[in-house]
């Protein structure tokens, strides 16, 4: 999948927007070109939430009854007008978690995405389920549409500050993290291990209860061979200088991955769930997304979407909009209300 054209509402802002995003957008298009080999997500309506209203002015045909966009590309286009806005349903800082869902859900977007375009489908559904939902932007200056470009350790510090703010404002003891790509793998795992998300000596004081990764960037990626080729041609470092260190940090054998994977994939007191599609062409080989428990008691659930719905054709970018994946996320967050996904809705 390639990035759509950037379309600022004010024509006078076009040059400024393009200058601000041109290099990352071009590199992002190259980085994501491998996704073009998978079938696109057609945005089939699902789990409608009646009675809700959109928090931003959007075309009715592009939304699911005011519950957010059904297509990543349309959400991305909308985000160019408000690149730092939260998705519908998120960042109500007066929200108080109830006994049914005592932990706020913090959503972490992926590389070259932003909170609005990544979570326009999931966020309003979780809010309708009764969760306090929060979604931050990280890895780029305010005003940039294409985010999560900074070095992973820097973004992890931003995540740490955001989670601390959520805990402080809601009064909750822990949060659940749901992330996509970088935001579901290397970034939250780095936060958990090195940026204060867990307490090694006292897991009861961990700030995170559950990490749910959608197409998570764990253990590095070849990007269908593009990253491997860049390493062999010795152009990965120059590309990272223009497109962001996050690209290099997510390759196989990077210094960040080497440090992160030392000692095992998991930490005591944290539950882990991965949701993986075999049709992923970005985090490749897709088997690298799975996690292994560092200790036998560490709870890890690796789910392959096609094991549940064999006909599901969603790829990397479409996964946060796939109704099967959305149902699996909600099942993982609250097993007491879990239900089998409707495979007839799979794209």
Q: Quick check: average pLDDT?
A: 82
Overall tally of structural domains: 1
Strand order within the widest beta sheet: 2-1-3-4-5-6
Mass-distribution shape: globular
Into which percentage range does the β-strand content fall? Answer: 5-15%
CATH topology: Rossmann fold
Termini, distance in Å?
15 Å
> Helical percent range?
25-40%
In CATH terms, the superfamily is Alpha/Beta hydrolase fold, catalytic domain
Number of H- or I-type helical stretches: 12
User: Helices and strands: which structural class?
Assistant: alpha/beta
Largest sheet: 6 strands, parallel
How do the helices and strands follow one another from N- to C-terminus? Answer: HHEHHEHEHEHHHHEEHH
Query: Which CATH top level class fits?
Result: Alpha Beta
CATH architecture, by name, is 3-Layer(aba) Sandwich
By DSSP, the count of extended strands is: 6
Question: Low-confidence segments, ≥5 residues, pLDDT <50?
Answer: 1-66
Radius of gyration: 19 Å
